[in-house]
Amino acid sequence: MDNEYAVTEFIIVVAVLVLFWSPYDPLLDQVEDFTASSCLTLVCSINQCSITTSEGLGNSKVGFHPIHKRFSGFHASQCGFCTPGMCMSLFGALVNAEKAARPEPSSGYSKLTVIEAEKAIAGNLCRCTGYRPIADACKSFAADVDMEDLGFNSFWKRERGRK
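-> structure tokens emitted (163 positions)
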């Protein structure tokens, strides 16, 4: 039996359920940045797009991204299954917030707001840690965060000790 079409199987293993996707829009002549579920993204839709996973942000060989460091400092990971997706969702929110026409924040903060930080991780599920330390780690990047509302963390103590 002859087939007119050759069928090729692609097996893609992605450890993170959320990835940062940057397709080029030729009509606007710019790169759009957003997060997408790797389970629901068709392979053909990522052709010629930049894809970043949590490991692309940082790792033990090249150094960890500040998002990874904050998650660690705020004890926002237990089993680690949801952590890459949470990190990538927050990264997407941070990148998009930096593009917003807002005043420059103080050093160590971003243009992200507390509400945007909370919305960024709203679609991610965690069975182990609970959402308080995860939300606190995310909100710690926000320019409008009230530091007294953040829970226990070791991140701030380490940073103060270095100065």
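The chain is about 30% helix and 10% strand.
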